[in-house]
């Protein structure tokens, strides 16, 4: 293992853009816990609506805006957004990064006696793409028509009623994080075919691989 993987000085290089697998594992852990808290907050809001339908959500109902919750009462469209974003955040931004990104990065090299991950720069780039994808997904609440409202799988019949947050922010965020988007066309009633799934997955991996490779080359120069 080249020594420059270990020799890292300065605040940004040591703690933010570190190549150390332990630091990257901690970055994954802290970031995924923040997204876990966001997903938990969304669940609290829409479960209040289930428990007390037609009543204003206390504290946060007024923060949702009149277009989403007039008088603090959630509209059905905004309820679908909360449910869809809750599932997406919990699966792709919290549980999987915490189990694989955090524990995998921190513990696996120690368990096998390796000094670091095989490709430290790609490992670091993977975390920052994950963070960028998560921020894009959360920001979809602020785009016109709101966030994704078709569930975390984006299956019909809800997928026929897509918003700008569904078609751009949600889908682009999943491509950044390497998670294949649904193969269902928003205006088609046909279920996704099994033949189209491998090509979609390989296309996602190639897009993310190209981004990671370009970032890695910039840091190696």
Biggest sheet layout: none
| Share of helix, binned | 55-70%
Q: Give the overall shape.
A: elongated
**Which band does the percent of strand residues land in?**
under 5%
Name the helix and strand elements from N-terminus to C-terminus, one letter apiece. HHHHHH
Number of strands: 0
Separate helix tally: 6
How far apart, in Å, are the first and last alpha carbons? 18 Å
Mean pLDDT: 77
Query: Unreliable segments (pLDDT under 50, ≥5 consecutive)?
Result: 182-208
The computed structural class is mainly alpha
Tell me the Rg in angstroms: 20 Å
Characterise this structure.
This protein has helices at residues 11-16, 21-51, 76-112, 120-139, 164-176, 196-220. The two termini are 18 Å apart. The radius of gyration is 20 Å and the shape is elongated. The protein has 221 residues and is mainly α. The protein has a domain at 76-220. It has six helices and no strands.
Observed structural traits:
221 residues, 6 helices
Describe the structure concisely for a colleague.
The protein is mainly alpha-helical.
Show the helix and strand layout.
Elements: H1 11-16, H2 21-51, H3 76-112, H4 120-139, H5 164-176, H6 196-220
Helix pairs in contact: 2-3, 2-4, 3-4, 4-5, 4-6
